[in-house]
From TrEMBL:
It comes from Lentinula detonsa. Pfam families: ECH_1. It comes from the Eukaryota. Belongs to the enoyl-CoA hydratase/isomerase family. PANTHER family: ENOYL-COA HYDRATASE, MITOCHONDRIAL, ENOYL-COA HYDRATASE-RELATED. This is Probable enoyl-CoA hydratase, mitochondrial. The keyword Cell division does not apply. SUPFAM superfamilies: ClpP/crotonase (SSF52096). InterPro entries: ClpP/crotonase-like_dom_sf, Enoyl-CoA_hyd/isom_CS, Enoyl-CoA_hydra/iso, Enoyl-CoA_hydra_C. One of its GO terms (molecular function) is enoyl-CoA hydratase activity. GO terms for biological process: fatty acid beta-oxidation. The keyword Nucleotide-binding does not apply.
Length: 286
């Protein structure tokens, strides 16, 4: 771990070596960070673990600078097919760091566009799977909602308790929840601050499923996604996400055009030939 004296600035992060050390086939890069851990459970999966245990992984600006760097490094790494984001058993993340925020003034947050770079995760091209145990509150819930797939352990608790602090969600919760669980349930969470269990979140369709060994399951899923043709995976993510923003007619047109475009790839030829020849496809991501 770095000492507290190590001031993480955007510039410092840009200058940190991009070359990970190699131990066998597993690449470890954790040592460059203070608030997160990074590892490669296998060469095709990047695992990022939020690591501020004493603060229940409260999301601070230095943590987000590190998280964004780790996410974009993984996104740019050709060997990585999918990313898993997790926290501890007790907390995925208990929200934005209230102690960092409490004395801020309107002029600071407005002038400096506070939180603007906290949604960078949603710009990634590779799929991100959230493996949630314990508290996913406020910004922690919003961070999970920015991911493409959410798996939750039976201990997970989701909520938007900002109302208890005299504010509202600021990281997309009020918008993404409406898409995920509908207006009435989103309104209930935002206006009461009530936490919902993993089981309730599952019933509401907010997550993919509840599972024991959530990190292991997420890595398994990420490994499976990584075994597919990566052009098709990226296209699939792009069209599903477009469904959030386009009308149905525009979305269907975009999906069809993207589908047509995949016929220009070697992976489409290989995938369909392999099916016809009753063998496993060998995708080259080209
Ligand atoms: N910020 C700062 N510190 C925190 C936070 C937080 N959000 N949550 C917990 N901590 C700290 C506590 O202060 C405590 O520190 P210390 O030991 O120094 O006193 C330590 O973590 C352990 O916490 P507790 O003792 O409170 O643990 P409990 O098990 O008793 O309670 C709870 C756990 C219920 C999770 C409780 O800690 C809690 O209510 N936390 C705050 C939850 C919250 O209100 N979250 C919303 C924050 S606002 C927000 O997220 C705005 C989103 C902005 C957008 C973000 C974009 C991604």
């Amino acid at each position: 771990m770095f000492s507290r004296a190590f001031q993480i600035t955007t510039t410092a992060l840009r200058t940190v070596s991009r070359k990970p050390s190699v131990i066998g086939t597993i690449r470890l890069m954790s040592t460059q960070y203070e608030h997160i851990l990074t590892s490669r459970p296998n060469p095709s999966v990047a695992l990022i673990t939020l690591n501020r245990p004493k603060a229940l992984n409260a999301l601070s600006t230095p943590l987000f600078l590190e998280l964004n760097k780790a996410l974009f490094d993984a996104d740019a790494d050709q060997a990585v097919g999918a990313i898993v984001l997790t926290g501890s058993d007790k907390a995925f993340a208990a929200g934005a760091d209230i102690k960092e925020m409490k004395d801020k003034e309107f002029s600071d947050v407005y002038k400096n566009n506070f939180l603007a770079n906290w949604g960078e995760l949603s710009r990634l091209r590779k799929p991100v799977i959230a493996a949630v145990s314990g508290y996913a509150l406020g910004g922690g819930c919003e961070l999970a909602l920015m991911c493409d797939i959410i798996l939750a352990s039976p201990t997970a608790k989701f909520g938007q308790p900002e109302i208890n602090l005299g504010v509202i969600p600021g990281g997309g919760g009020s918008q993404r929840l409406v898409h995920a669980i509908g207006k009435s349930r989103a309104m209930e969470l935002v206006l009461t601050g009530r936490m919902v269990s993993a089981q309730e979140a599952d019933q509401w369709g907010m997550i993919s499923r509840v599972t024991d060994n959530v990190v292991e399951e997420a890595i398994k899923m990420a490994t499976e996604i990584s075994s597919k043709g990566q052009l098709a995976v990226q296209a699939g993510k792009e069209v599903v996400n477009a469904g959030y923003e386009l009308t149905l007619a525009e979305g269907l047109r975009f999906e069809r055009r993207t589908f047509h475009g995949l016929f220009a790839t070697k992976d489409q030829k290989e995938g369909m030939a392999a099916f016809a020849e009753k063998r496993k496809a060998e995708f080259t991501h080209s």
